[in-house]
Design goal:
The chain is α/β, with parallel strands linked by helices and 417 residues long. The protein has 16 helices and 14 strands.
Length: 417
């Protein structure tokens, strides 16, 4: 921090990232930009993979962002090679008595040089790095910094079979140790908040939804005069199973009504999905859309679709409140989901969508839900109005930004300006 910044009392925030792309909607577009706008000096330390930064769809930037340090939209970006830290960060699984050896890695060292007041970490492994940063800042600089763990999901997921049980138990035990050094937890749903509170009741937890900023909005006449357009926003691949269900839903719905399934986004880098020839007029891909222009592609959408097909095998699936959910609602698009805990509770409380009360909803179940809304334009209009209204009043990014700033003011003992 230079002399002018010290005189102005500008507080410095360092975002520490291990997995996410530097342009991530939550990390960069929402949190970092909001903090910058409110007068904080923000630095992000972000990974290169195989030498390159990467976009939100995984595409490597081979011609851009090649400098080790650069400024992007007013925010300082410091980069490191992910491969150089992998071995060190994996030591989180070792006995805590040897953790100090793990903190001699490029990520931690770069973070120390930033001499920030708050270190805001975004994944399990960046939490581990953050613990090291907090310890080393006190040990070497005599500075007590604040550590925020922004938990986008539960790691380890208590229900997931991704790890052997012994590894999962170890990850869980180490998580509890690390949380003892955390000053604030931020997370994305009320159920995840309650989970943390049950484990560490003395650590404050705030929910900051993945809501987008409000954009200009003109209520559309959602009476379907041409065709019903259902939207899926985000990544799509064969691995998650959504693609097979989209094809099945499209085939069923096209037999019952004029129908379009709009994929807002698409496949990740080096992946491809083939639309069956008989569905080329039913399924459409927009390709990747800039975050700021998503609302333009929502103007002809009547329903947003979210299917959680792993509810019995993932607590994160049950508790999820993904970006796409709030993107739909912000644009006045009611949502149809199956029986995931937090999504279902939200839709039923605010009457802004339809819940299929099944943990495993079939293509036929979704066809029936879409057909019902297609035939009831009054209901579709009401759900649309409710969706936009609740976002405007309570849950748009402006409201979430207020929560974020309140967390920072509390941690830094700042007065409301």
């Amino acid at each position: 921090m230079n002399d002018r910044e010290k005189e102005n009392g500008m507080k410095k925030v360092c975002m520490v990232v291990v997995e996410h792309p530097f342009q991530d909607a939550r990390v960069f577009r929402k949190e970092a930009k909001s903090l910058q706008k409110k007068g904080y000096q923000v630095t992000m330390i972000v990974p290169r993979k195989q030498g390159y930064l990467f976009g939100v769809d995984g595409t490597p930037y081979k011609k851009h962002y090649l400098n080790k340090v650069f400024t992007y939209e007013g925010i300082k970006i410091v980069t490191y090679h992910a491969e150089s830290c992998k071995h060190h960060l994996s030591k989180v699984l070792k006995d805590a008595s040897v953790w100090d050896q793990a903190f001699q890695n490029p990520l931690t060292q770069l973070a120390l040089k930033e001499n920030a007041d708050v270190y805001h970490v975004h994944e399990y492994l960046s939490l581990f790095a953050g613990v090291g940063i907090k310890r080393k800042m006190l040990e070497h600089k005599g500075k007590k910094v604040k550590l925020i763990y922004d938990s986008h999901e539960l790691t380890p997921d208590p229900l997931s079979e991704r790890y052997p049980e012994a590894t999962k138990k170890n990850l869980y035990e180490k998580l509890l140790l690390m949380l003892d050094e955390v000053d604030q937890i931020i997370t994305v749903s009320d159920s995840i908040k309650q989970w943390y509170q049950s484990k560490k009741p003395t650590v404050p937890v705030e929910v900051i939804y993945n809501s987008p900023p409000l954009t200009d909005y003109t209520p559309a006449n959602t009476k379907v005069t041409d065709r019903l357009t259902v939207c899926f926003e985000g990544n799509l691949s064969n691995r998650k199973g959504n693609w097979e269900k989209i094809k099945a839903i499209s085939e069923l719905c096209a037999k019952e009504m004029p129908f379009q399934f709009k994929i807002l986004g698409g496949t990740r880098f080096n992946e491809h999905l083939e639309i069956p020839s008989h569905l080329v007029d039913v399924i459409t891909f927009t390709g990747w859309v800039d975050y700021a222009h998503i609302h333009e592609h929502m103007k002809d959408v009547h329903i947003g679709w979210i299917d959680s097909d792993g509810l019995d095998a993932s607590l994160n699936e049950r508790y999820a409140m993904p970006n796409k959910f709030f993107s739909y609602l912000t644009n006045g698009v009611p949502v149809v989901v199956n029986e995931s805990d937090d999504l279902a509770a939200f839709l039923e409380k605010y009457r802004c969508g339809t819940v299929i009360h099944k943990k495993q909803a079939s293509a036929e179940d979704y066809r029936d839900a879409f057909l019902q809304l297609y035939n009831d334009s009054q209901m579709l209009n009401q759900l649309s109005e409710n969706a936009r209204r609740i976002m405007e009043v309570s849950f748009c990014w402006g409201r979430m930004e207020d929560r974020l700033l309140a967390v920072y003011r509390s941690l830094l003992n700042e007065e409301v300006k």
